[in-house]
Design brief:
With 337 residues, the protein is an all-alpha fold. It has a single domain, classed as Farnesyl Diphosphate Synthase, CATH 1.10.600.10. The chain is built from 15 helices and no strands. Helix 4 packs antiparallel against helix 6, helix 8 runs parallel beside helix 13 and helix 12 packs antiparallel against helix 13. The protein starts with 27 loop residues before the first helix and ends in a 13-residue tail after the last helix.
Length: 337
């Protein structure tokens, strides 16, 4: 991240300096439900205390994103400053110091008490900084640095928050983050283009005969969405599917109360791939989404998968997830294709 910082808020000023303001405690669950219908749907399969805890973590992660995408002052310098100060206050709260920012004073101590490494919060902020200074990703390896930071670390965070610290299980938890974020990217190509961002790997775009400017042309209806585009979407969906399969291997090692919503969320998100196909691969002018009936059917499939406790995480050795941070996405062991 940039070294630019704003002066630290004085002790006791609370969250008045933040823009936009973070959600208040009474708003955390509604914030969760509003910004992520699929995850809120999956969270219904959790006991209330753990569901509330998940909503708090989600509120922290989503608000960190909002500091970039919904900032009242859109200047890069102001956003960099707020991100840096948000991270600094997060670390203080993690260390047990009160910040008078309710979201930090609840989420960070819970993170510390559960032995969740603060590095995950630091990586998340680094991912938001990547959006602020967005540059096209040369290939999948480069994209996975981003998907690790904005999604993989959340899987790691929640897995450790709920008491699982085994490194092989954490590997699979990060894989789910990669899968979910890639599905998001494929669903939101047009919306991202409108915001000046292209997340599709440049080498794959070119391999299928596209330049980044072609995305704008297809969105405007000046180019057809043809077989080349369908082939590109299928190739990237196959990458996501590989990560989903990798993630499912860890389900038997998770507490049942957590395995159920993880499996439901994964199945619902995988279902977006079928919706993309039904839409003729047009993710430039429309946003694929699953109906409530389809979600219920996919949730049932997820519950069946989560109930199978016979499988076990892979036994192959992996590096220590908590120590190597976002470098995970660039190590050969994390690239299966």
């Amino acid at each position: 991240m940039s070294a630019l910082l704003i002066p630290e808020p004085a002790s006791g000023v609370g969250d008045a300096w933040l823009s936009p303001p973070p959600p208040a405690p009474r708003e955390w669950m509604a914030y969760f439900a509003h910004h992520s219908r699929s995850f809120r749907f999956a969270a219904r399969f959790m006991p209330a205390p753990q569901r509330d805890q998940l909503a708090r973590v989600y509120a922290y992660c989503r608000y960190t994103d909002d500091l970039v995408d919904r900032a009242a002052d859109p200047s890069r310098a102001a956003i960099e400053a707020r991100l840096a100060t948000w991270l600094r206050l997060s670390q203080r709260a993690y260390a047990g110091e009160r910040t008078e920012v309710a979201l930090l004073d609840r989420v960070m101590p819970e993170m510390a008490e559960s032995r969740v490494p603060f590095a995950y919060a630091r990586e998340l902020v680094a991912g938001m900084d990547m959006d602020l200074h967005h540059r096209p990703y040369a290939d999948l390896r480069a994209l996975r640095v981003y998907t690790y930071r904005v999604a993989g670390v959340i899987g790691l965070w929640l897995t450790e928050l709920y008491g699982v610290h085994d490194q092989r299980v954490l590997h699979h938890a990060a894989a789910l983050g990669h899968a979910l974020q890639l599905t998001n990217i494929l669903r939101d190509v047009g919306e991202d283009w409108a915001r000046g961002r292209v997340y599709l790997p440049m080498d794959l775009l070119q391999a299928h005969g596209f330049e980044p400017s072609d995305l704008g042309a297809m969105r405007a209806g000046l180019m057809p969405i043809d077989r080349r585009w369908a082939s590109l979407m299928e190739e990237l969906m196959a990458v996501a599917e590989s990560d989903y399969r990798d993630a499912f291997a860890a389900l038997p090692a998770l507490p049942p109360f957590f395995a159920r919503p993880v499996a439901v969320a994964a199945q619902v998100y995988r279902g977006i791939h079928d919706e993309i196909r039904r839409a003729g691969y047009d993710t430039l002018r429309r946003r694929a989404h699953t109906s409530i009936g389809r979600k219920l059917w996919l949730a049932a499939r997820g519950l069946v998968v989560s109930a199978d406790r016979r499988a076990a995480p892979s036994s192959f050795p992996i590096p220590d997830v908590r120590r190597y941070g976002s470098a995970a996405s660039t190590r050969p062991g994390w690239m299966h294709r």
